[in-house]
Structures are given as structure tokens and as C-alpha cells.
Amino acid sequence: MSSNNIESVLIENRQFPPNDEFAKNARINAEKLAALHHHAETDYTGFWAQQANEMLDWHKPFSNVLDESNAPLYSWFNDGEINVSYNCIDRHLADKADKNAIIFEGEQGDTSFITYKDLHQRVSSFANALKAKGIKSGDRVVIYMPMTPEAVIAMQACARIGAIHSVVFGGFSADSLRDRINDAGAKMLITADGGQRGGKIVELKSAADKALAGGCPSIENVIVYQRTQHDIPMQAGRDSWWHDAVANQSDDCEPEWVNAEHPLFLLYTSGSTGKPKGIQHSSAGYLLGAAMTNSWVFDLKDDDVFWCTADVGWITGHTYVAYGPLAVGSTIVIYEGAPTVPDAGRFWKMIEDHKVTVFYTAPTAIRALMKLGDSYPNAYDLSSLRLLGTVGEPINPEAWIWYHKVIGKEKCPIVDTWWQTETGSNMIAPIPGVIATKPGSCTKALPGIIADVVDDDGNSITEANRGGYLVIRKPFPSMLRTIWGDDQRYKDTYYPKFDGRFYLAGDSARKDADGYFWIMGRIDDVLNVSGHRLGTMEIESALAAHELVAEAAVVGKPHEVKGESIFAYVVLKGERPAGGVDEELTKTLRNWVGEQIGAIAKPDEIRYSDNLPKTRSGKIMRRLLRTIANGEEITSDTSTLENESILDQLQGKA
Ligand code: PRX
Question: Are 440 and 416 in contact (CB under 8 A)?
Fold first, then answer.
């Protein structure tokens, strides 16, 4: 796509400065922020070295800061040694041993509290259990768990012994799990008998069994956490229960000191082409970004209770649940269950019950809860809240204002945080005690993050509100290191333009007259459904893998709650259904995609046509398909269509 096609339509002028009370107590005030920016601008590596020394505890100090010799395969602090789990747990034991690290609530209302001391013991004994099963530094371990503290314990235990985890979201199907296990060459799978959501059991073990039965030759052992206690088969010699695995293990485990660049985890995410890619993160640089942003953007202080509602299956659940808040010694809330059980007041009740002070969620959740009415939040005491956050997709001003008024009672700053799986931590986000917010804008880049909007030639766009490519001009510590096993794909994906000078985020954006960033959308064929990234190609290949389907094209359609919904055009191998309608088949295909990828990827609508609109050179005319999906008038030139009569079919008129 050319930047000339990136048009900006939304202009929003309201501004909300932080209230005096918040600004007075915030970790970063205007003076400090200016000093941080000045330091980063005048001495980039000195700035990062200072942050790394202040925020992290090093086993062996580093002397190298940034190594660009193999650009764009950058490395940071690469002669230092560290352990992430030590930084998240052990270093707090001296003064926070009895402080809650985790407050957990299950959907049924079961609650538990885990102090830093408990967490240290549980992570250590599980780490010893992993070692007893032959897991060593550098081995890959896949985690496919419900949103319980054990998921965090499993991640921290891997980090403790230098094993590289790859968490697969529990909503992904057996096939998706198998692909990720095989791509990573994982030796172990950690799962559970099941999870709990919406009053039902999420069958994790049976999906895991199906994945393994499909062929995962690298897996040697499976550890199964007992959550639901329903009957599941255990395979002798391969599967063991979590409680048995830890039964005789010491609750002391010396952390494995690893190089700063040692991979901490892989997290698979969708791109515009091919299979999901294993985003590889480092240990020290990643943790630095996580610690810094939990401190600066979420302003976490000793008495805060931080609830980020993301599942650990996503990057947000890594950086703002499993690692970052613990790195700064905070208390986190974990909830396993749906936001509407027993009713739409669940989040607000939990905020009251656990006295949550900082709350971070996705615009899609805000929109869904907003639609259900103010009576739910109004029934609870939300006065503990002092800061709110959003992530994952642009927030529309209406939802922003509702969040501000009805949840934040007009006193909580809202941090709209732009970042990605690849960036590891917040990149563009307000420093809440300083930066006035504007509904829908993620405001300004954090100190040390040199973000910009550029044109096709890589020149900064200086004209206010003109759209272009969002780029980051300099490497930063928390950025991905590569795509697992595929350096070339890493280079081709993130440094394809501008002579490899800038990291290309894949988003379009504009800056307004005050220099605020406004994210406008993806520049590639990636959908953002309820804040989750899905490649159109992935869904198309899943559809095309069905025996009845010849070809498919998938586009996004704006959706009131989900941000985008999935609209699929399908060409069958046999006859097109009469009138283009076959509800049974549509159900079958939706379930099929659910099985191939996961329920989040099921198309919302499917339309059948005799063929797809293509240019003479055979390219699918996606822009036309988007126009049609949106029910808009067709203005593009359709004269090159090989078969103009299919337009009626695509529009659902024939
Ligand atoms: O398009 C941007 C959108 O989500 C993409 C990253 O998706 P993912 O890697 O799944 O990570 C989501 C959680 C960090 C981005 O390329 N996005 C993320 N945050 C925002 C956003 N769009 C607008 N505003 C945001 N605050």
C-alpha cells in the first residue's frame, strides 16, 4: 500500500489534563519526563544503560549497551547476565515477602492469595519439577493453560531455569497448538484438565491430546494441572499431574543465570502471509521494557493493586500480568472466567472487592460492557481506581468518554497504550501525571522510543494530520530479536522498506498539530478482532482446506463491539447454494475454521459466489470486497473484472 492511500478522517479535539492530585503523586512529573527525554535524545545508549542498571538486578553487569554490528539483528547488554524470575520474585523477598503478589479469583468466586514468599516457593518447586523431567536451559516448553496463577508460575519457572516458554492461548484449537509445538520443537507441554469460562469447562487436555496425536515428535512429557477435576485420560509414561510432579521437589531452586540476550519466550502471532510467526524475545531487554512501563505508564507504587484483564496467551498478559508488575514488586489480580458471569457487573464487583487501583483492559471489553448499561458499574464502589488503561485497538471517543465518566468518575487518567507483540512493551502512551489525553489518541512516544510517521520515501511527515507509516527509528531493548528460526522472515517483515533503517510497525498513523499520535489501522492484510490479531491469509487457508471449498477471500468489516468482524467470500468446488444461502454449510464452515485455528477466527458472515473478483493479472480485489462487505456503494473500476455478473452474488443480491 502506498502512503497516499492512507487517509485520515477522524479529528477529535477534546483534551483531558491529569488532575492535580494524580499529577502531584505520580512517579514521573513534567520535570522528570523532560529530563528523561533529554537524556534519551542526547545520549541514547547512556540513557538505556542507566535505565537497565536502575530497573534490573544483574548477576554480571554489562559493559556493552547496544550492538548494531549485525543489524537489524540487534542485541542489548550482551555481555551481562541476569535471571528474569530472580528479578520478578527473589529481589522482593527482603521487604515484600508477605505482600500479595497475586490475588486470584475463579469464575465461581473461589479466591486465593499468593504472597511473594509463596510465589517463590511455588515457582521454585515447579522449576525443580521441570528439571527432574529433563528440561534444561534453552529447551522449549509450550504452556496451554487456563488463566490461573499456575500459568504465571509455569512461565516464571521456565524463566528461572532458562527454558524458553511459548504460551498458546487456551482458545486456540488443537491444530493451532500442534503447529506451534512443532515450530518451536518443544520438549514439554504444560496444560490443565480444563479451564472454566461462561459456566462451562474449556476442554484443554482433550485438545492437547488431539494435538499430540496429530504428531508432535519433539514432546517428551506433559504436565497436567488439575483445575476442573473432571475425568480426562492420562497417558502413562507421558503425562503426569502437576501436584505429583512437585510433590517431592525442594522449594528452593537457584536461578539459572543467563546471558541478557538468552531468549525468554516465543509468542506466536499472525502476519499477513504464511503461518503464524514465533516472535522471539530476549531476557534483559524485554524485562527492562516491562519494568519501565509498569512504573512509568501504570505508575505502579507499593500500595497499588493492578488488574490487567488480558490472558497470558497474549503479549499483554506476558508484560502486564506475568512479568512487568512483578518486576516492580506490585500486586496483580488474575481472573479466570467471563466478564458477564454471573452478570455484566463482574469486573466492577471485583474492582470493589479487591480494591483495584489500576485497571487495564481492551476497548472491545469496554464497548461490550458499555452496551449493557451504567446500572452495573453504578452498583459498585469504584473509588479505589486511580488510573485506567486500554490496549490492542483504537478506542472510539464514545467508549473513551464512557470509561472516563462512568468507570473513572472523571478523576482517573486513561492511558491508551500503543504497542505490539513484537515491541514487547508500551511504545506510545501517555505518562499519566503529565500528558493531557485526547480520546482516541495514544498520545506521545515514551522516552527512548523514537517513533515517527513517514512517507513512502521514509521522510518524516511534518504536516499535521497527514497519514503515513508508523515506524520506530532506533532499536530499543524490548523489541523482538527475530522470528524463531527464520531471521530472513524477520528482516523481510519488519525492515522491508527505507533501506532497513526503521522498524516498520505495520500500522498507519498520523500526528496532530500537538504531535500526538493517532493510530489509523493496519497497512497489511491483518485483522484486529476484539483486540486480537488475525491474518486474513490464515483464515483463507483454513477455509480452503475444507473439502467443499475451492477458494476463499476474507476481509474485515467494522463492528460496533469487536472493532472488526470477519467477512468471508467463499467459492465452492460444487454448485453455489441456491440464492447464495446455505445456513447449514455456513455453520459447518464456521466450525471448521474454529477447529483449524480457534473460535476467535470463525467468520461472522460467509457469502458464496461463483468466483472471486480478480484483476486481469489474477489478484483478488480486496478493496472491492471490503466495500461490498461494508454495504458501501461501489466506486472502484470493476471493468477489469473477468466476470462482472458476480457482483450481484458478492453483494448478496443473487
Ligand atoms: O494495529 C495495532 C493494534 O494492535 C496491533 C498489535 O497487535 P498485537 O501484537 O496482538 O498486540 C496487541 C497488544 C499490544 C498493532 O499493530 N494496537 C495495539 N494497541 C493499540 C492498537 N491500535 C490502536 N491503539 C492502540 N492503543
Answer: yes
Cβ atoms 246, 129 nearer than 8 A: yes
For residue 416, report the distance from its CA to the centre of ligand 1, in Å: 10
CB-based contact 425:419 (threshold 8 Å): yes
Residue 578 CA to ligand 1 centre (angstroms): 40
Chain segment 321-330, per-residue pLDDT in tens: 999 999 999 9
- Taking residues 559-577, what's their average pLDDT? 93
Q: Residue 61 contacts by C-beta under 8 Å, 6 or more apart in sequence?
A: 53, 80
Per-residue confidence band for 387, with pLDDT thresholds at 50, 70 and 90: very high
Cα gap 53→75, rounded to integer Å:
16
Q: Cα separations (Å) of 246 from 155, 157, 240?
A: 15, 12, 10
**Does 636 have pLDDT greater than 80?**
no
Write out the three cell numbers for 472.
Answer: 520506530
- Total count of residues recorded for the chain: 654
User: Looking at residues 536-559, what average pLDDT do you find?
Assistant: 91
Checking if the pLDDT of 339 tops 70, the result is yes
Q: Is the pLDDT of residue 4 over 70?
A: no
Spatial strand order in the sheet of 305-308: 111-115, 100-106, 331-336, 305-308, 358-361, 387-391, 414-417
DSSP state of 524: S
Position in ligand 1 atom list of the atom nearest CA 505: 16
- Count CB neighbours of 493 within 10 A: 20
CB 76 within 8 A of CB 63: no
Residue 109 has what pLDDT? 95
More confident residue, 81 or 522: 81
| Nearest CA residue ID for atom 21, ligand 1 | 393
Distance 517 CA to ligand 1 centre (A): 13
Atom 12 of ligand 1, residue of closest alpha carbon? 392
Residue 73: Cβ-neighbour burial (10 angstroms; 0-12, 13-18, 19+): middle
pLDDT value for 7: 52
Best mean pLDDT range from 332-336, 462-466, 572-576 = 332-336
Q: What is the position in ligand 1's atom list of the atom closest to the CA of 310?
A: 13
- Which residue from 388, 519, 524, 534 has its CB within 8 A of the most atoms of ligand 1, so it is best to mutate? 519
pLDDT attached to residue 10: 54
Q: Are strands 111-115 and 100-106 parallel, antiparallel or unpaired?
A: antiparallel
DSSP state of 91: G
348 CA to middle of ligand 1, Å? 25
Calculate mean pLDDT across residues 174-188.
96
Given 3-state DSSP classes, what are the helix, strand and coil percentages for the chain, each rounded to the nearest 5?
35, 25, 45
Task: Tell me the residue type at 109.
Answer: G
Mutational test site, ligand 1, from 308, 318, 391, max ligand atoms within 8 Å of CB: 391
- DSSP 3-state assignment of 326? helix
Count Cβ atoms below 10 Å from residue 226 Cβ, excluding itself: 16
Pocket of ligand 1 (CB under 6 A): 269, 315-316, 391-394, 416-421, 442, 505-507, 519, 522, 528, 533
Give residue 316 CA to ligand 1 midpoint distance, Å. Answer: 10
- Looking at residue 1, its pLDDT comes to 44
Ligand 1 centroid – CA 525 distance (Å): 14
Q: How remote is the CA of residue 418 from the centroid of ligand 1, in Å? A: 6
Best mutation site among 312, 507, 516, 523 for ligand 1, i.e. most ligand atoms within 8 A of its Cβ? 507
List pLDDT tens digits, range 356-372: 999 999 999 999 999 99
Question: Residue 462 contacts by C-beta under 8 Å, 6 or more apart in sequence?
Answer: none
Ligand 1 centroid–CA 531 distance in Å is 7
pLDDT at 535: 86
Q: Which three cell numbers stand for residue 362?
A: 481492551
